[in-house]
């Protein structure tokens, strides 16, 4: 019996079948002398409904695994490169594929007799989003052995949206003649409008396309660059925070699994000790019983020995008396 084989078998079962099958496999391993394997099997956690449905999707629709993994790689690449156009395109594909796979998981689960409630449906979709944002989560999902739904990388979607929207906003803000821009004011007849003298001594109209227009375009370009840089910072910070939280969650999960395994091992040890104590108590009772029986047998043997000695003594006395009587009879004749 191998752990990989048992794990694959157990996570292919429905949640209500998992615990009994796991305990049975652990008992078999222990009976075969594989105590470490038995402990590892017992440490396997029963999957939630959403995790089971996600596993079912991988197992029943294996051809959908590779496309989702590829899309995740493309999304993460566009996110790293801060490619807004590519992110917008991939985001549309992401929503279409996640929606389709979520519905397929719901259909498969219902077909297997375990309909998904709203919470489970949401967790299945959340798991699929996690597959797209985190390569480690993608590998976990593709193995088809989840015990709980996966969480999407914190801030990934929000940062991606911000990066995707920033260039478009910048382009919109850089267009001349946008809504709200004022038309150049025509100079009034008779020289009523003030005029400025340029560096070359010429005269420039107040609303002309000279320095003021160039200044406005320069300001808008700076704002556009600042928006893109802010989006980059937000994306980097979100990614760093997500990785940190992922590491913390993994560490906490490992600690919890180790604690559960230690508790179960302690319970098994305590049960073994209780069994040994019961056996020792039974042995003590049997020993005392045999001791009492031996005492009774000894007393009975002693009584019989004493009775035999008394009978022997009586026989000797009777024999001696008979001999004297016989001698007296001969002397009288």
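^ Assign residues to that structure.
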């Amino acid at each position: 019996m191998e752990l990989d084989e048992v794990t694959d078998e157990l996570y292919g079962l429905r949640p209500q079948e998992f615990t009994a099958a796991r305990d049975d496999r652990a008992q078999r391993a222990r009976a075969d002398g594989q105590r470490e394997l038995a402990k590892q099997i017992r440490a396997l956690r029963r999957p939630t409904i959403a995790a089971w449905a996600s596993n079912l999707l991988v197992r029943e629709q294996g051809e959908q695994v590779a496309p989702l993994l590829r899309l995740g790689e493309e999304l993460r690449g566009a996110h790293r490169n801060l490619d807004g156009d590519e992110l917008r395109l991939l985001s549309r594909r992401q929503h279409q594929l996640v929606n389709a796979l979520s519905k397929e998981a719901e259909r498969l689960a219902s077909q297997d007799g375990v309909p998904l409630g709203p919470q489970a449906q949401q967790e299945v979709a959340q798991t699929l989003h996690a597959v797209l944002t985190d390569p480690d989560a993608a590998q976990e999902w593709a193995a088809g052995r989840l015990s709980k739904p996966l969480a999407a990388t914190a801030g990934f979607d929000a940062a991606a949206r911000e990066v995707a929207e920033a260039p478009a906003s910048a382009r919109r803000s850089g267009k001349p003649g946008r809504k709200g821009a004022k038309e150049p004011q025509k100079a009034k007849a008779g020289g009523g409008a003030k005029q400025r003298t340029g560096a070359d001594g010429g005269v420039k109209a107040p609303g002309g396309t000279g320095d003021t227009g160039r200044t406005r375009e320069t300001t808008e370009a700076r704002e556009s660059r600042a928006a893109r840089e802010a989006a980059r910072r937000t994306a980097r910070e979100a990614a760093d925070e997500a990785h940190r939280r992922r590491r913390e969650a993994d560490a906490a999960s490992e600690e919890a699994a180790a604690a559960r395994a230690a508790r179960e091992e302690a319970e098994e040890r305590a049960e073994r000790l209780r069994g040994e104590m019961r056996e020792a108590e039974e042995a003590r009772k049997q020993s005392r019983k045999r001791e009492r029986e031996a005492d009774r047998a000894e007393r009975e043997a002693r009584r019989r020995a004493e009775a035999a000695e008394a009978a022997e003594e009586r026989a000797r006395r009777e024999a001696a008396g008979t001999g004297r009587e016989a001698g007296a009879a001969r002397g009288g004749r």
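The longest strand covers residues 196-197.
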